[in-house]
């Protein structure tokens, strides 16, 4: 019964992620931790997210924005390697809280008049990748951290979700290599992650269908609202 629950929650989590670009991992992680244990949950989540992100990027592959993706990865990959190496012995609660506060402040900043005069540019994408990679390696998910920076590029919804998903896919593949080096991915964990990942492929397709039916204005409103909610969750529930 618990694996049926795991499959259903993984499907729903992937639907959310494919619809708004993030959120699925934070929904899925608590259920996963109850089944495999908190220590193994992060590597297993990473395995599952490889399937989820691969399918999200594939469904929107024709709208990928390569330049911001490459700058984002320039920051995320080295810091994902660093934080994944530290995962076994570091308490990441304080990092999670700081990043949560940062997300809320940036959404507020986006709605100030001065924010309209500021462009993220390439350095902003490197910074976004750095924060995302470091937090993701420690906790299994950076929440909406990376999504916020891709959102700042004012991309169409499908391009935003697909580009963020591709960057996340490369990030998770990097983490798996590091986790494997430190024997943090067990055979059981690999099987459970793959099982959940299959459900995430279906959820990604459902989310893509939902994404095609929403206007850019409503999409931005929903995404920013969820970023604030998840940011507050990171601040007070970590």
Automatic annotation (TrEMBL):
InterPro entries: TM_pro_TauE-like, TSUP. Pfam families: TauE. One of its GO terms (cellular component) is plasma membrane. The chain crosses the membrane at residues 69-88, 94-112, 124-152, 158-178, 190-207, 219-237. Its main location: membrane. Coiled coil: none annotated. The keyword Acyltransferase does not apply. Belongs to the 4-toluene sulfonate uptake permease (TSUP) (TC 2.A.102) family. This is Probable membrane transporter protein. It comes from Hymenobacter montanus. The lineage of its organism: Bacteria, Pseudomonadati, Bacteroidota, Cytophagia, Cytophagales.
């Amino acid at each position: 019964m618990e694996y049926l629950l795991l499959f259903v929650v993984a499907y729903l989590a992937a639907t959310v992620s494919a619809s708004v670009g993030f959120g699925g991992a934070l929904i899925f992680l608590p259920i996963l931790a109850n089944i495999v244990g908190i220590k193994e949950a992060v590597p297993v989540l990473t395995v599952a997210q490889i399937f989820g992100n691969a399918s999200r990027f594939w469904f929107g592959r024709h709208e990928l924005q390569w330049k911001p993706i490459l700058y984002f990865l320039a920051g995320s990959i080295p810091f994902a390697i660093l934080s994944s190496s530290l995962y076994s012995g570091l308490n990441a609660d304080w990092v999670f809280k700081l990043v949560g506060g940062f997300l809320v402040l940036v959404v507020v900043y986006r709605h100030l008049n001065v924010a309209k005069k500021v462009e993220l540019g390439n350095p902003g994408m490197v910074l976004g990748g750095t924060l995302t990679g470091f937090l993701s390696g420690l906790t299994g998910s950076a929440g909406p951290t990376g999504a916020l920076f891709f959102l700042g590029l004012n991309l169409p919804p499908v391009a935003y979700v697909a580009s963020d998903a591709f960057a996340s896919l490369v990030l998770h593949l990097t983490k798996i290599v590091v986790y494997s080096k430190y024997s943090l991915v067990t055979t059981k964990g690999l099987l459970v992650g793959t099982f959940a990942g299959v459900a995430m492929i279906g959820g990604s397709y459902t989310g893509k269908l939902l994404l095609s039916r929403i206007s850019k204005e409503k999409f931005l409103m929903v995404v920013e609202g969820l970023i604030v909610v998840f940011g507050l969750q990171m601040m007070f529930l970590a």
